[in-house]
Amino acid sequence: MDSCVLSHLEIIGTGRYLPQEIVRTEEFEGRKMWAYDKFGNKIGESRTFYTQKLIDLTGITERRKAFADEWPSDMGYFAAQSALQKACIDVDSLVGIIVATVSEKKNFPSAAVKIQERLGARNVKVAYDLQNACAGFPTALMNANSSSRDFNGYWLVVASEVLTKVNDYTDINSHLFGDGAGAAVLGPTYTGKGILGVYSRSEPFEGNLEMIFRGENPDCIRMPDGAGVLRRAVDAMTESVISLKKDLNWERVDVYIPHQANERIIAGVERKLRGDGAVVYRNISRYGNMSSATCAVALDEAIGDQTIKDGSKVIITSFGAGLVTSAVAIKF
């Protein structure tokens, strides 16, 4: 082993949990919806959406909805159990737990500590939640990777959201959101596998801070300028991919896992990266936008269906409120 090579983390197990209740796009048929400004005032005239129009616009045919007493720490626990089982490690081997969520019912004690307690992971040294909206999962992965140099051992990263609990069904974007959780167990390595590159950017300027936010009265998700968000999301995620490939001198990537926000955003990223030859992974049709959980769930599915294989070069990229962008490059 080259003593000059720094240790980093590789993913050794992933898992997911999706609530049982399925909300089909047909259930939004004929509803009147509005756009809202930051003060909760309706913008313009109402719009009535119909099933096929919604599917054509977003690519979403269904999404999941958590039970009334089901919260991110609950769903994250089940996703974590699955990931730990696949990783074949005991919970006492965990030194760190990071949970990406913006929708935990009570944010202290943290969802990470709640999951630690339910797992019975007594040797954890670091446990905390991070809020980076839809960019939470790659941010949590990069945080675990950097922290592992001080706390060597196995790390659990979870992304879990219940967006249906902060969803105003009169809002023009309400049909986008769903609930779910994904998890990854990571272990130390000195090889050429694992997390090899990271990218992060925050731009809360020029009105960006108010493009996606959590409104008041009611407490819910607001996105007044969906078209503007779409353009910025495509550009930001594409830029993150180009930057990571350049940094790592990767001529090609095998799989991209972009944030599953909207089919038009995913297609826009795919067009800008055309000619690359990589698979642009999609599962948005079944789950909609689950904020931080989208990439975590997609990663587990991509490994499970063999889209990601041993040796695959993968970039996970996401974009969300702030506006923030986060991406990681991983060799499997």
Explain what the structure shows.
With 332 residues, this protein is of the alpha/beta class. It has two domains: 137 residues, Peroxisomal Thiolase, Chain A, domain 1 (3-Layer(aba) Sandwich); 138 residues, Peroxisomal Thiolase, Chain A, domain 1. It is 28% helix and 30% strand. It has a five-stranded mixed beta sheet with strand order 1-9-8-6-7, with helices on both faces. Helix 2 crosses helix 3. The model has no long low-confidence stretch (mean pLDDT 92).
The CATH H-level superfamily of the largest domain is: Thiolase/Chalcone synthase
Low-confidence stretches: none
Q: How do the SSEs run, as a string of H and E?
A: EEEEHEHEHEHEEEEEHEHEHHEE
The counted number of beta strands is 16
Q: How big a fraction of the residues is strand?
A: 25-35%
> What would the principal axes of the Cα set say about the shape?
globular
Helix content: 25-40%
Q: Which secondary-structure class do the elements indicate?
A: alpha/beta
Strand order of the largest sheet: 1-9-8-6-7
How far apart the termini lie comes to: 19 Å
Number of helices: 8
- Rounded mean pLDDT is 92
Largest sheet: 5 strands, mixed
Count of domain modules: 2
Radius of gyration: 19 Å
CATH architecture of the largest domain: 3-Layer(aba) Sandwich
Q: Regarding CATH, which class of the largest domain? A: Alpha Beta
